[in-house]
Specification:
heterodimer, A: about 250 residues, alpha/beta, 9-stranded parallel sheet, B: about 150 residues, mainly beta, 1 helix, 9 strands, about 50% strand, globular
Chain lengths: ~250, ~150
């Protein structure tokens, strides 16, 4: 039973048992341990900080001289390769504090390093915050095609549209479409109300009321609920009034 | 005459409001502000402002651009191209200068119109990104048009 279990554990278990047996035999014979063998008579142990603990040298006695530890310079620290626990942050200047006595591990924890000169910014604590420009709140007041602007395409708006420039294509507004003098609209126009002071060429479809001001011109097909035409307007159109409206078209 | 006062705006800034949708080509010699949904080309010789509620996709040419909304496409900006913290841009940009505020989202190819002295510009041409899938169900303005 016992043997079987060891077999199952493999060669590792057997090696361990062999090592244990060898150690027992060495202890019984009074031989020292392996580690004790290392510090034999020809080993020189020097301690820099304190008094030499052991200096037994048979052959090299003339070469090795024993000096008392020299005086510690002010600010000198032991040159032990220790990674500073607190890495100084970039650009932060710390004053190097010289420990009075030899640094203990706790003193290393408090030790700080001066940032090199090239790391220190010329103007410390300079702020790079950028002012964020304000563009104002979103508008729902109406779409504007300004003068000197030319829009070509399809424009759909749920509110009002005012055209002071040039608009080609298709425009659809659920509110009022205002076409200013000197403005031009070419294409299909659909809106609830239209105030026309400029020039429209194309198909005009107006659910509620179309008003053509003096100087305004409409060319093409007009389909409107109510039509108001002021004197001085130019019209070259085919009208169609929508039936079922209580209001009737009037001409001044 | 009634209604004439409504014309005397003198407003130089073209505006696409937040409830509007435009698909096409736009040329303007002055400023332009977009609050709504825009698809197509923009040629603006003034300041182009794309507000937070705006969605713009297509080609944009402007003297200066301030972006607070969403922009997808190709951008050529003569002067300053500024992305505010709320900006979402997926665009290939050639700009005179660029300001990106913290919080802005940007992906794409970005290069300056003029390389600084001593640096030669990259020898690559800007290739267009694959366009995003366009979701037609999102826009209320377009739903209105289909009715």
């Amino acid at each position: 039973m016992f043997r079987k279990r060891k077999d199952s554990e493999g060669a590792q278990g057997l090696n361990r048992i062999a090592r244990l047996i060898e150690q027992r035999q060495r202890e019984a014979a009074g031989e020292p341990d392996d580690e004790a063998l290392l510090s034999d008579d020809d080993t020189i142990v020097l301690n820099r900080g304190g008094a030499p603990r052991e200096a037994v040298a048979d052959d090299a006695g003339s070469d090795v001289s024993l000096v008392t530890p020299r005086e510690r310079y002010e600010g000198e620290t032991d040159l032990a390769p220790v990674t500073p626990p607190n890495v100084p942050t970039y650009g932060q200047v710390h004053e190097t504090t010289a420990p009075e006595s030899g640094p203990t591990p706790s003193a290393f924890a408090q030790h700080t390093y001066a940032a090199p000169a090239w790391q220190t910014p010329a103007e410390p604590q300079r702020s790079y915050d950028m002012p964020v420009p304000s563009i104002g709140a979103s508008t729902a007041s109406g779409t504007l095609v300004a003068a000197d602007a030319e829009w070509e395409g399809k424009l759909i708006a749920r509110g009002d549209v005012r055209v002071e420039g040039i608009l080609r294509g298709e425009v659809e507004a659920e509110g009022t479409l205002i076409i200013a003098p000197n403005a031009q609209v070419h294409g299909i126009v659909r809106a609830r109300d239209i105030v026309l002071g400029g020039d429209v060429e194309g198909e005009i479809s107006c659910e509620h009321r179309l008003e053509i001001l003096p100087g305004g011109s409409a060319r093409g097909q007009i389909n409107s609920g109510t039509l108001v035409v002021h004197e001085g307007a130019y019209i070259d159109s085919r009208f169609q009034m929508r039936r079922g409206d209580t209001e009737t078209g009037t001409t001044h | 005459m009634a209604g004439n006062s409504a014309f005397e705006t003198g407003d130089a800034t073209s505006l696409l409001d937040s409830n509007a949708f435009f698909d096409g080509v736009l040329h303007t010699k002055r400023d332009l502000r977009i609050d709504g949904e825009y698809r197509g080309e923009i040629h603006c010789e003034g300041q182009l402002t794309i507000a937070e509620s705006a969605q713009v996709s297509g080609q944009v040419h402007a003297s200066a651009i301030t972006l607070a909304g969403a922009l997808d496409g190709e951008v050529e900006c003569q002067g300053k191209f500024e992305l505010l913290p709320s900006a979402r841009a997926s665009a290939n940009v050639v700009a005179g200068s660029v300001v990106i505020h913290p919080g802005a989202q940007y992906e794409g190819d970005l290069r300056m119109r003029e390389a600084p002295e001593g640096l030669s510009p990259r020898e690559t041409t800007i290739t267009s990104l694959p366009r995003r899938a366009q979701n037609n169900a999102e826009s209320p303005a377009r739903q209105a048009s289909e009715r």
